[in-house]
Amino acid sequence: MKINKLLVGLLTSVTLVVGSAQAADLSIVSGDTGNGLAFLRSQLDKFEADTGHTVTVVPMPSSTSDQFGQYRLWLAAGNTDIDVYQTDVIWAPQLADQFLDLTEAAAGVVGDHFPSIIESQTVDGKLVALPAFTDAPALYYRKDLLEKYGKTVPTTWAEMEATAKEIMDAERAAGNPEMWGFVFQGNAYEGLTCDALEWVMSNGGGQIVEADGTISINNEQAAAAIDRAASWIGTISPEGNLAYQEEESRGVWQLGNAVFHRNWPYAYSLGNGDDSAVKGLFDVAPLPKGDGPDARSAATLGGWNVAVSKYSPDPEAAIELALFLSSTEVQKERAINQSNLPTIVSLYDDADVAAAQPIIPSWKDIFLNAVPRPSAPTKVKYNEVSSLFWSAVHNTLSGNGTAAENLELLEADLTDLKGGEAW
Ligand code: GLC
User: Fold this and answer.
1) For residue 94, which of 63, 117, 113, 67 has the smallest C-alpha distance?
2) Could you identify the atom of ligand 1 that is nearest to the CA of residue 264?
C-alpha cells in the first residue's frame, strides 16, 4: 500500500515535470475578419490555461488572397516562426507538402466531422489540416423593406434586380440618398471568384474547370451571368462595389444602406449586434437562381482549417493546438458567438446553437450542396486559375470588354496554364 502510494506520487511528479518541460511558445497566423481575432484570443486564453503553452497571434489581412501570398513565401523559406496556420479550404492541394500529416493525431475525432470536409483537406492520403468551420453564403435581405413594399423574397436574379431597384428608388425618393439595392464582393481577389462562380453555376454555366479537369468557362450561360452582374454596377450596386471585399460590403449593409447583400454566415451574428442598424430587421435566404433549364441556387463552398507547419520547432504542442481549435467545444462556441457553420455533425442538432444562431441548422443542406471551387482538379495551379478568372470577371464588371470577349481570352490563358492533357 505504502509502496503503491509512493509510486503514484513519484509518477505524478514525473508527469508534472515532463508536462512543464514541454510547455511551448507557439505562434498562429490568422486573418482579421469581423471580430474573429478577439474570438480566437478568447479561445487561446483557455488553451494556455489548460496546457501551460503560450500562443502568440500573428494578425494577417482579411483577404484570403493576400494571406495565401504571404504564407506561400514563408513556407517556401522554411519559416520556423509560425507553428500553426489557419488555412482556406482551397489551399490544401497547394500547400500540402509544407504541413504535417494529422491523420494519426486526429484518428479519434475525424469521424465527428462531415466526411466531405475531411476529404477536402486530404491530399494523396495525407490529412493536411483539421476543419475549424465551413462556409456557404446567403442572400441577406431586409425583412422590413420587403414588407413595406409588399415584396416576396426573390428566388431568381431577375426578381432580385427588379425588387432591389424598386425599393432602392422608393427609399431614395423618401429621403435616403445612400440606399443601394445589392452589395457583394466585387474586388479583384478570391472573394470575386466565389461570387462569380455562383452567378455562373446558378445560370447553368458550369464550374470554370470541371471535376475531370475540362476547362468549361467559355460558354454562353456563363457569359450571360457575368454580363448581368456587370449591369448591376452603377444601377443597383455602387461603383465602389468594384473594390469591396466581405467587410466593405458588410459595412454598407450594416449601416442600413442596402436592400440585399451577399455574404457568408459570419455576417449574421454581426448584423444582429448592438451596433448594427439592421439588428432584427433582416433574414437570410438561399442565393437566387439564374435562367435556363440548368438554373439552380448555387453557393460556393468556403471554410477554414487549422494546419501545422512542418517547420514548427514544437510539432507536438502545435498539433495539440490544432486539435483544440477544431474540437467540438471550440466549434460550438464559434457557432454561438461568430455564427460560423460547424464541421461537426452533431452541432447541427445542438439546441444552444440553434437558439443563438438560427441560420446554422437551416444552412446544413446549403453547405452540403455547395459548389466547390476547382482547387482539387487544378491542384497546385489553382491560385493562378482563380486569379485569371477573377481578373476576367473584374474586367467585365469594370466595363473593359464584354463577358464573351473576356471568357474567350480566359479560356486561352487557362489552356496555356494547363499546358497539356492533365493539370
Ligand atoms: C470566406 C470563405 C473562404 C473564401 C473567402 C473569399 O472566408 O470561407 O473559403 O475563400 O471567403 O473571400
Assistant:
1) 67
2) 1
The model's pLDDT over 9-47, given as tens digits with 9 standing for 90+, comes to: 444 444 444 444 489 999 999 998 889 999 999 999 999
- What value does the mean pLDDT take over residues 116-141? 97
If you ran DSSP here, which 8-state letter would residue 315 be given?
H
Nearest by Cα to 137 from 191, 188, 189: 191
d(CA 324, CA 353): 19
Q: Which single residue is written with the C-alpha cell 455602387? A: 238
pTM, whole model, 2 decimals? 0.94
Domains of the chain (ranges, CATH numbers) = 2-135+302-371 (3.40.190.10), 138-300+372-418 (3.40.190.10)
Q: At 212, phi and psi to the nearest 5?
A: -90, 5
CA of 10 to the centre of ligand 1 (A): 51
Atom of ligand 1 nearest to the CA of 245: 12
Task: Using the mean position of ligand 1's atoms as its centre, give its distance from the Cα of residue 340 in Å.
Answer: 12
Any residues with Cβ below 6 Å from ligand 1, and which? 64, 88-89, 135, 190-191, 194, 246, 264, 302-304
Task: Scan for cell 468557362, then name that residue.
Answer: 217
| Contacts of residue 264, Cβ cutoff 8 Å, sequence gap at least 6 | 135, 136, 137, 138, 246, 302
Distance CA 193, CA 72 (A): 20
Let me know: does 79 contact 309? Beta carbons within 8 Å. yes
Quick one: how many helices (H) and strands (E) in the chain?
19, 11
10 Å Cβ neighbour count for 69? Answer: 12
Q: How far, in Å, is the centroid of ligand 1 from the Cα of 16?
A: 42
Residue of the CA atom closest to atom 2 of ligand 1:
302
Looking at ligand 1, which residue's alpha carbon is closest to its atom 12?
Answer: 191
- Please report the atom of ligand 1 found closest to the CA of residue 300: 9
pLDDT tens, residue by residue, 311-357 = 999 999 999 999 999 999 999 999 999 999 999 999 999 999 999 99
- Of all protein residues, whose CA lies closest to atom 5 belonging to ligand 1? 191
Coil, strand or helix at 103 = coil
Closest CA to ligand 1's atom 3? 302
